[in-house]
Amino acid sequence: MFTQTNKKSRQNIAQGTSIALDNGYPTRLNFYKDPPLLEISIEEFEQYALDRMQVLTTLLTAQMRNLTPEQLDRTMNEAIKKYMPMSSNRAQEATQDHQYERRKDHISHFILRLAYSRSQELRSWFLRAECALFRYRFDREVSSEQIRFIVSQNLSWKKVSDDDKRRLASELSASSFKTTQKVQEETYFEVDFEKVTGLVGRRQVYLKGGKAYVPMADQVDLVLDEFKGRLANALEVTGRALPRMDEDDRLMPVLNNINKQYLGREFTTSAIAGEIQAQDVDSLKVHMPPCMEHLHNEMRREKHLKHWGRMQYGLFLKGIGLSLEQALIFWQMAFEKLTPDQFNKQYAYNVRHSYGMEGKRTDYTPYSCRYIIQNNAPGPGDRHGCPFRHFSAPNQRAILAAHDVDDFDTEDIMSLAQGKHYQIACTRYYEVTRARMLGITDNLKGGSIHDGEGNVGMVASQESIEHPNQFFEQSFLLMKSRQSQGESVGPTDGQNGPSETPQPTIKGQYVYKKAGAGAQFSSNSNHDMEM
RNA sequence: GGCGGC
DNA sequence: GCCGCCAACATA
Ligand code: SF4
Known about the structure:
Elements: H1 7-15, H2 42-64, H3 69-83, H4 95-115, H5 120-140, H6 143-152, E1 158-159, H7 162-176, H8 180-185, E2 188-192, H9 197-201, E3 206-208, E4 211-215, H10 219-241, H11 252-260, H12 290-302, H13 307-319, H14 324-334, H15 340-354, H16 369-374, H17 387-390, H18 393-402, H19 407-418, H20 422-437, H21 468-484, H22 517-522
Antiparallel strand pairs: 1-2, 2-4, 3-4
Helix pairs in contact: 2-3, 2-4, 2-5, 4-11, 5-10, 14-15, 19-20
Bound molecules: iron/sulfur cluster.
The site of iron/sulfur cluster (SF4) has 14 residues, from helix 12, helix 16, helix 17, helix 20 and helix 21.
The protein binds a DNA/RNA duplex through helix 13, helix 15, helix 16 and helix 21.
């Protein structure tokens, strides 16, 4: 395809069947539809591929480390500058470089496509990597360029009419945390929901009858889906054609060497927030469900937690990415009344055991909502359990009040809890409080989320909170994605969003404020077990 | 917290 | 009083 002096490619170029080189790259974005047909030396061939690999791997690992948008940009800019500079159309002096840079981008993509088409595993890695890169570039392109690209590719989706928009206004506003007002101004596309699984997964899109309603702001996802689809197909095709290419003994060794690069690969650190440090836990409190936040607050207040509290909270923390090492530090510091060796004697073993480092070595999963609600009802002095299930009504109200839940929502949640729909109450709590964190203060009421049956939709899905860690992850990712979209984070700000090294929360911010409330929590009356 | 060992 | 060992299970 693109070896050196190859009669065929010369011919093609001559015939003009390939893309014209001079103005072949109007934008930095590229769907890589046609392979480049040109001459290139083996050395260049390999160098191009390796350079692109650098960019792809930096991006993927940077993403996995959950850096702040700023940190991510910084590391990416470094890598891009070094390995694959791509100047924009605005830098007019360098119009010559445009074509060179974009050509390199084009070629290197195709080399890797070849190198990574051999096995399913390689293909899916490459697909992920390229999608990430495409998205990264697209997001950072000015909108005029984005549009130019979309138009040039003849991409278009069905727009939602104003009438339909009015009809769906409340659903749309609920799913996107936007006011109905904003919904009217926004352009929406109606597409098959398979096309935007990303958005669906993040629950940021309204679904109905197999269709997803995607706001203009999330158009990237549509473009990306197109990109992904095409590339996936292309990879399959190349993969099938590859065996017949073995004759080209010049290339195969090089290609195989290239995809070896990827061996520094997949490590399954499932932790959403990355490696969390003991001192970072406080700043992550904003993403925790009420049960865990309560445990945390009480632990800070009493410098202690009883057995089931440690169990419930400790496993939860492990689930959000606190390593064993950090956990030991965390608990040691939390129980500040104890000397280090008192601590080691009484608690260290159990911490290690929970992390699968003692005895049978089981790496225990954090407790699910069902487990917390059904087992180990808290007794006097206990701080664990599910607030919606185990706390007295006044204490429940205090929690809601401490989070600025308004009267309407408070009553709603209270009645759900009293109706024994604990997880639904929690889901509603999630929605209301997250909306507030995003700065949405109105219009998430009545019909929008709360339908007639007393059933609650979890932002565009009909699911509910099933697991404390799900609550956390969902909230964490939601804030992360909103933040990187450059949207302002609302009034309850002051917590710095997810970052590699979160700063401690401003002291007192979320401790139960308004004198009197505190007393309620430290009292031992917060367990009215209903059978 | 439970079980178990000295 | 000293110590070991156990439990859990969402999810895309
Ligand atoms: S429903 Fe689950 S997550 Fe929410 S408070 Fe109860 S236990 Fe915690």
